[in-house]
Structures are given as structure tokens and as C-alpha cells.
């Protein structure tokens, strides 16, 4: 009985610990989700900026540097155009690098979220096992208590029977003692 009580106490404590771990993992998953959403917004903004730059270059009629140099226009204007095209190309390259960095970060976050989900699933599995063990222990405890109660009832019945037998024996002895006393007292 004491062993069963101890086991139930241990399982309850483990369930409480698992609940704490589960809450921590859920908070970590929520944090990873928030970071992922922030990266989604950042990626969207960077993609829009890159689209505007590309649109301005191709749809707006910006030409590449070689074409401008070979056109025979004013060399100063060509130099300015070349400088701006270089800046535009750097801006595009920077945006593309930022997008790559954000994509790598999102991949890392997705992997971390997947690992946390696996940990959470494992904790939930262990919680279910612990609950099943707890139910088994409680059933064992109830079975043990029922067996003890049955034994107590049987012992009480036996005690009652023994008391009745004792009273009958006491009366019988008393009766025999009276009979023996009357025989002694009777003249021979």
C-alpha cells in the first residue's frame, strides 16, 4: 500500500514537471513563430524594394553601363549614369544578400520549431504514459483497499463469532459449575 502511494506521488510529481516543460516549449514555439512572422514581413518588404529597383531599371528604361558608354553621349553624363547604375546594382546585390540571409534565418527558425514540436510531442507522449501509470496505480490502490476492507469485514465477523462462542462457553461453564456445586452440596 505504501509502495503504491509512493508510486502515485512520483507519477503526479512527474506529470507536474512535464506540464512545466510543456509550457516552456509552447512559449519557445510562440517566440519562434513571432520571429518567423517578423522575418516574413522583412522578406516581403525587401522583395518589394527589389521589385521596385528592377522595375525602375527595366521598365523605366535604365540601360546597362556598356550601352551608355557606347552611345556617344556626354562623358560626364555617362559617368554620372554609370555611378548611379553602379549604386543601383550594389543596392540590388545588398537586397539579394539580405533576402538570402533572411531565408537562411527562416530555415534555421523552421528547424528549431520542428525540433521544439518533436520535443513537445515527446513530452505529451510521456505525459500520457504517466497518466496511464497513474491510473493503473490508482486501480491497484483501490484493489488493495478493497481487499483490506474485505479482510477487515471477515475479521470483524470472526471476532463477533468468537465473542458469541466465548459468551456461550462462559454460560456453559457457569452452568456446569452450578451443576457441580449442587451435586457437591447434595447429601450422598
Order of helices and strands: HHH
Low-pLDDT sequence parts: none
Number of strands: 0
Count of helical stretches: 3
Biggest pleated-sheet summary: none
Task: Give the integer mean of the pLDDT values.
Answer: 78
Overall shape: it is rod-shaped
Q: Your description of this structure?
A:
The chain has 188 residues and is mainly α. It has helices at 2-58, 65-70, 75-185. The longest helix is centred in the last third of the chain and has 111 residues, at 75-185.
Summarize the structure.
The protein is mainly alpha-helical and 188 residues long. The protein has 3 helices and no strands.
Protein traits:
single chain; 188 residues; mainly alpha; Helix Hairpins; 3 helices; 93% helix; rod-shaped
Amino acid at each position: 500500500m505504501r509502495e503504491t502511494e509512493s508510486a502515485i506521488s512520483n507519477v503526479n510529481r512527474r506529470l507536474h514537471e512535464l506540464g512545466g516543460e510543456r509550457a516552456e516549449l509552447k512559449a519557445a514555439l510562440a517566440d519562434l513563430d513571432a520571429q518567423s512572422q517578423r522575418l516574413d514581413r522583412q522578406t516581403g518588404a525587401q522583395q518589394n524594394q527589389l521589385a521596385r529597383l528592377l522595375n525602375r531599371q527595366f521598365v523605366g528604361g535604365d540601360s546597362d553601363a556598356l550601352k551608355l558608354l557606347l552611345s556617344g553621349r556626354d562623358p560626364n553624363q555617362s559617368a554620372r549614369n554609370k555611378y548611379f547604375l553602379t549604386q543601383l546594382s550594389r543596392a540590388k546585390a545588398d537586397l539579394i544578400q539580405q533576402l538570402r540571409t533572411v531565408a537562411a534565418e527562416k530555415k534555421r527558425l523552421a528547424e528549431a520549431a520542428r525540433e521544439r514540436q518533436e520535443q513537445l510531442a515527446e513530452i505529451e507522449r510521456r505525459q500520457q504514459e504517466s497518466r496511464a501509470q497513474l491510473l493503473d496505480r490508482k486501480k491497484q490502490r483501490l484493489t488493495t483497499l478493497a481487499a483490506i476492507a474485505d479482510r477487515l469485514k471477515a475479521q470483524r465477523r470472526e471476532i463477533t463469532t468468537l465473542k458469541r462462542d466465548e459468551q456461550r462457553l462462559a454460560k456453559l461453564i457457569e452452568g456446569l459449575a452450578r451443576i457441580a456445586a449442587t451435586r457437591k452440596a447434595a447429601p450422598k
